[in-house]
Amino acid sequence: MAKLLIRGGTPLKGTVEISGAKNSALPIIVAACLAEGESILENIPHDIDVYTISMILRDLGAEIWLDRENRLHVVPDGLEGYQASYDLVRRMRASFYVTGLLLARLGKAEVPLPGGCALGSRPVDYHLKGFQALGARINIEHGFVKAETDQLVGSKIYINRSSVGTTINLMLAASRAKGTTILENAAKEPEVVDLAIYLNSMGARIRGAGTDVIRIDGVDSLRGTEYGIISDRIEAGTFIMACGITGGELVLANVVPEHLRSTILKCEEAGLEIEEGISTIQVRSKGRPLAVDLETAPYPGFPTDLQQPFAAMMSIADGTSIIRETIFDRFRYVDELRRMGADIRVDRDTAIIRGVAELTGAQVEVTDLRAGAALVLAALIAKGKTEISGVELVDRGYERLDAKLRQLGADIERIPDRQEDAFEECLTSSLLEIR
Ligand code: EPZ
After folding, report:
1. Mutate to test the pocket of ligand 1, among 24, 95, 117, 122 (most ligand atoms within 8 A of CB)
2. Confidence label for 264 from pLDDT (cuts 50, 70 and 90)
């Protein structure tokens, strides 16, 4: 596994360009395959999850490539496969979005049930209940979801709890169903809105995205178009906290401050000075962060994906903070932070963090994407050297995080895993060949 070697103590300074949102890119690349004709997508991040979803769709017959201006082209006309490959789908839960696509486009889908991951069990029962409401027949055999329909028909669907994936998957399927679908208790995340705007630009008829009731009037066909996706609010929040932990001064470029409202408020409560521009955020840290209590919640609440980087910042805060995680079971990184001297106790869905004056470098391992970000942040302030293994998990959702941090002054070195990197290299070059 590739490693990062970080020597802590350097305050971050400079300007960082935030990449496109991974959690927008994934559903939008899938949605491009609902259409006839080519879509050209801009601001797509170069991360492993984007390569994986592209490979799954290529495996089903779509053509996907990057051009020299770094725009992703998707030509779905040859997409006829309805059986998604287990080896590829098991790598990433968001692959389950192809179920909504295949039902809408082909009336048939065989997709492996997504496994659990470091965030605990992650069922798809709401997705399946929604597809059945739209008229699909669902069977689960040998770990595969087998779904079939002669014609998807619009329906009124209440989603049991705010679920980004369910809202997205049902929006994909309903966009080409017969009649009207109403999604009640829909997720309001910016990535859901981004997808709806893209689908409407292709000829879909979706109203209400961003509220908890989304109306979708199905259409017979969609046509490919050009679209630029939103920037990544989770990457932006991670850099704000990186500045908070190292006591530096950053300008974040290519961001949507509105998407970070709850994050900005919490970081200001922790003592960071934050100034918003139209598409920039300026962050200054006046020294040791203040201890702040936190509870994660669906958008517009504090995002669960920033809970771990925030906890890393609280591990050196002045005081004790209580962090409650209401979405997933995602405190596995705490053991690794403890190895660096953090004083954290977890009691069911709550972490009690007593801020310490100093963390010390150690050998630690990444358990999941955002936990990896937390370990990188902790290493940026820890005394001495930290060796972080399993950095491929960080590459799944952050584009060149180590390179961006180095450019801001961090003492960070990447120790490649020849074999793993060779595999990733051939994956990206073969999959997303430049034309
Ligand atoms: C999306 O995951 C994101 N992933 C996650 O980001 C993010 O943490 C999560 O939304 C919450 O915001 C992508 O967009 C690719 P959910 P998703 O459905 O859709 C339960 C990252 O690091 N649930 O909103 O899988 C579920 O267990 C990733 O970028 C069911 O019970 O999350 C959870 O407790 C991590 N049954 C809650 O709902 C279902 O059928 C919310 O999950 C579906 C979900």
Report:
1. 122
2. very high
CB 65 within 8 A of CB 435: yes
Averaged pLDDT for residues 421-434: 60
Integer Cα distance of 204 and 222 in angstroms: 7
Q: How many CA atoms within 13 Å lie on the side-chain side of 397?
A: 22
The residue whose CA is least distant from atom 25 of ligand 1 is 165
Q: Is residue 267 part of a domain?
A: yes
Report the run of H or E that residue 280 belongs to, with start and end: strand 280-285
Considering the chain, what is the average pLDDT of its residues?
A: 95
Q: Is residue 389 part of a domain?
A: yes
Q: What is the CATH number of the domain that holds 159?
A: 3.65.10.10
Residues 252 and 283 in one domain: yes
Q: pTM score, two decimals?
A: 0.97
- Spatial distance between the Cα atoms of 228 and 25, rounded to a whole number of angstroms: 10
Would you call 243 a catalytic residue per the annotation? no
The answer on 167 and 142 residing in a single domain is yes
pLDDT for res 430: 60
Of ligand 1's atoms, which has the minimum distance to the CA of residue 94?
15
In the chain, the number of structural domains is: 2
Domain of residue 408, residue span: 3-19+231-417
pLDDT digits (tens, 9 = 90+) for 68-106: 888 999 999 999 999 999 998 988 889 999 999 999 999
